[in-house]
Design goal:
- 27% of the residues are buried.
- This protein has a 7-stranded mixed beta sheet with strand order 4-1-2-3-5-6-7.
- The protein is built from 3 helices and 7 strands; from the N terminus they run E-E-E-E-E-H-E-H-H-E.
- The radius of gyration is 15 Å and the shape is globular.
- It is mostly beta strands.
- The longest helix is centred in the C-terminal third of the chain and has 9 residues.
- It has one domain: 4-Layer Sandwich (Metallo-beta-lactamase, Chain A).
């Protein structure tokens, strides 16, 4: 694999107030010789359900990134701060854990459901391949 060059670029897309401190929200672009991958999509708009977290947005759509150049989108999980920009990739497959998608669609306090199922968003539900760190006790 000599000469294989992979880069991972974090992009700050928001920050939220959590326990009296600002918490940054990042998405990541992975540049791989075979594809350009976006991991998570952040937030692109405000929502009353998270107003108490005083979101300060830097939407992906306003960053210096060519959204059309993204080949693959992966959601590590579907909390609002990870899937709020999925609508920017309507019509393109978005990979997510099967159990996570089921939870996001069935549990009222899991996420902002209209962001999960925004018009045109198409998921490719997968079985066990990623785990997220917000809830390490959950096994998917």
């Amino acid at each position: 694999m000599a000469g294989l060059r992979i880069t991972v670029t974090p992009i700050l897309v928001a920050d939220l107030l959590a326990e009296d401190e600002r918490m940054p929200v990042y998405v990541h672009v992975i540049e791989h010789p075979d594809a350009r991958v976006l991991v998570d999509t952040g937030m692109t708009e405000l929502h009353p359900a998270v107003a108490d977290m005083d979101p300060r947005l830097r939407p992906l759509s306003e960053q210096e990134i060519d959204l059309a150049s993204i080949d693959i989108v992966v959601n590590t999980h579907l909390h609002f701060d990870h899937c709020g920009g999925n609508h920017l990739f309507a019509g393109r497959p978005i990979y997510v854990q099967r159990r996570e998608l089921q939870d996001a669609r069935s549990q009222d306090d899991h996420t902002i459901r209209e962001w999960v199922d925004a018009p045109g968003v198409e998921y490719v539900p997968e079985t066990v391949w990623l785990s997220h760190t917000h809830e390490p006790w959950r096994s998917h």
